[in-house]
Amino acid sequence: MTGNPLIDMHEVTKTYDTGPPVLAGLTLRVEAGEALAVLGPSGSGKSTLLNLIAGLDRPSAGSVTVDGVRVDELTETASAKYRRSRVGMVFQFFNLLDDLTVLDNVLLPAQLAGMPSTEAAARAAELLAHLGIDRHTRAHPGRLSGGERQRVAVARALMNRPRLLLADEPTGALDNVSGEDVRDLLRRLNADGQTIVLVTHDLALAESCATRTIELVDGRIARDVRAVAR
Ligand code: ADP
Ligand code: MG
User: What is the pTM of this model?
Assistant: First the structure.
């Protein structure tokens, strides 16, 4: 592999006001094209790790560089812009806006980024079709199944063509069938070149999607395994 990693976390420590460090001198490099699954028991710092990469939180020590940007040093405005342009995020409970249609949810990141509306409409239509949810374009998310809602959330996350897709327990609220849908989708996206970091308890998700799996224990990487083939 050549060049700089897409994610470069160097000796990152994160301590909250009380308690021991959540992350303790963690160093992690992720190359473009990887699908990294982050495993670990509840409370082991998985969401904290993702939030640091997304610039939603700051390390107590160490550095976080993503796509050449020192994420830990951005102002709030620059951090919001970084997330809009380079990062897509997917959460366990979808975080869709139920007052908006599926289409308007997917268009939102493009509008915030100032993408011309004809281009945004074309991109949204392409994504909704690609993710198999174009029949629901005019529906409100509350009418959709969990798996469909998560696909809408993925479409929204991909709207601005982020270099990095972050997912925090994306199958955590789904039944088996919907979970399988989302696993397939993430696998397909990674096969098409999308770099993904996903946090999960779902071993099936890690096994089916990840090219590499790390396990967090006591604020450090206890295990780091690359899949030979999928
Ligand atoms: P995981 O996602 O692996 O379940 P988290 O990253 O959410 O773990 O949390 C790791 C630890 O950090 C937990 O002990 C949690 O209580 C603590 N924690 C997370 N966020 C905060 C916060 N904002 N303030 C104080 N403690 C926090
Ligand atoms: Mg979590």
Answer: 0.94
Please report which ligand is nearest the Cα atom of 22: 1
Q: What pLDDT is recorded for position 45?
A: 95
Give me the pLDDT at residue 59, please: 98
Q: Which two tokens stand for residue 3?
A: 């060049």
* Ligand of minimum distance to the alpha carbon of 44: 1
Q: In this structure, which long-range contacts are made by residues 50-56, counting pairs with CB atoms below 8 Å and at least 24 apart in sequence?
A: 50/166, 50/168, 50/197, 50/199, 52/9, 52/12, 52/14, 52/23, 53/7, 53/9, 53/87, 53/164, 53/166, 53/197, 54/83, 54/87, 54/89, 54/166, 55/79, 55/82, 55/83, 55/87, 56/83
What whole-number distance in Å separates Cα of residue 29 and Cα of residue 227?
Answer: 16
To test the pocket of ligand 1, the residue of 14, 22, 53 to mutate (highest count of ligand atoms within 8 Å of its CB) is: 22
Tell me, in angstroms, the distance from the centre of ligand 1 to residue 15's CA.
Answer: 10
Residue ranges of the chain with per-residue pLDDT less than 70: 1-2, 228-230
Which sequence spans correspond to the domains of the chain?
A: 33-58+76-210
Q: Is 79 in the pocket of ligand 1 (CB under 6 A)?
A: no
CATH code for the structural domain at 33-58+76-210? 3.40.50.300
pLDDT at 201: 85
